[in-house]
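Form 7-S
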Amino acid sequence: MSSVSYHKKRIEECLKKNIQINAREAKIEADYILKFALKKPSSFFISNQKINIEKTQEELISSILKKRIKREPLAYIFKEWDFYGETFYLDKNSLIPRQDTELIVDLVLNQFDKKSKLNILDLGTGSGVIGITLSKFYPNSLITISDISPKALKVANKNIKKHKVSNVHSIESNWFAGFKEEKNFDLILTNPPYIAKGDVHLTNLEINYEPSNALFSANNGFSDIFKIIDSAANFLKPQGKLFIEHGYTQADKVKNYLQKKYFDTIKQHRDINHKIRVTSASKIKV
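Output:
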């Protein structure tokens, strides 16, 4: 058996050598791996660097590293990932939740009182993280989560059970195809596929493990965004709001397209890197 500090260094060196990440990234990943293998919080490692870890934990670390050096993302290796301070089940049938997407949750929380009785649609939900997270903040609200992929919905349904939320239900639907045009949603939230196929910025090999239909969209990444905007007004109440996550280079086109449809009060929101990643708009009374 060897100490925590020994394994931390071993993991960092293995990652730097085999997947060419920098020292800072290697340190972060080593911390994730140790926390997962030892089932301990970050605070445990501050004063326990010299304790020895058990053989079964050493074997688990080695198993994780074998997968990681093949560029499999940690989220899929662990079969779980954190979003907005909560841990969600995950597998390769759904997109890995990103910190960028937490911006949508922030925006809703900033605009609506937690006692509100809202009818919310999380469109293209994937693992269900947006809808399930909001269901905890808005216990008086009804949350619908939908996805075209039955495999992704299976992940989302596991998370509904995991988080024991009773105000969330799921629907299999290709965007709005599975819904009646009843204009009954107060909010529609979506993180659709918006990456252009062949995008030169995609150098991260880990992305090959994620479902391509949740990442890539035709028309230079705009096809699904435009489809959603085309139909969203038919499912929103008067003055209902639409929130769309998109790439930071797509902000102008998304805003212009919304202006051509039944929307006004268009606002664009920046992430922690000061890039516009979410556009919101209100349905015009028609």
